[in-house]
Design a protein that fits this description.
Radius of gyration: 19 Å
Number of helices: 6
Shape: globular
Order of helices and strands: HHEEEEEEEHEHEHEH
Distance between the termini: 42 Å
Number of strands: 10
Strand order of the largest sheet: 1-4-5-6-7-8-10-9
Amino acid sequence: MCPFSVTVQNVPDRELGPLLTQLSQAGFDSPMIKVLAADGGRDNTDGLARRRTADLPDDWRVIRERNGETYRWPSGRDRYSPYRVFMGATRAEGAVQIGLGETVRKNKWGRDRKYVVAFRSGGSPQQPLVEFVAADDYEETRELIAVIRGSDGGRRMYGAGDALPPLYTERFRTQTYNERVDHPGAWNKIAVVAREDDDQTMLNHALIQSRRRQRP
């Protein structure tokens, strides 16, 4: 039997997240989403491009969870437990999947530290986006930090005197990395701060970072 393509029209914003979750649970993880403009349905491509960076999901939902997922880095292999895949809906990209994998790395910045690594993910770790590392006072604050990259449109980090993109000053808590990780060689660069249970901050930071690196 031939496969079918099904179109669901005029889905309200508030219903899009639950619909995507149900589709994912049924095994359809990559729906095509078309944004309809308020003027009767024509694509508003230019407006979407201008708003793309600020277009963040209101509701990230866990669609699968695995233990024992791994990713090989040049310096060795991480094993993540748990590894959770989240789905969020954006106007620019439609459904987005990002995974958060938790691990402990030995002797990082002078001690064993918890890491939460965000990946582009279709089920298993694929493209690493950001790494959140436990701050020195993690046992008291449960806070992790991750550098902000992209000041050159690529991997360059933002220094203490650099102007951050407005979205980071408006919606994220930031500090310099070496304020929270006191160790020789720790970067004097701006970082996002998140509690270990603040999945939304970590996911949104990862999504913004993936967009900034993809700019032409």
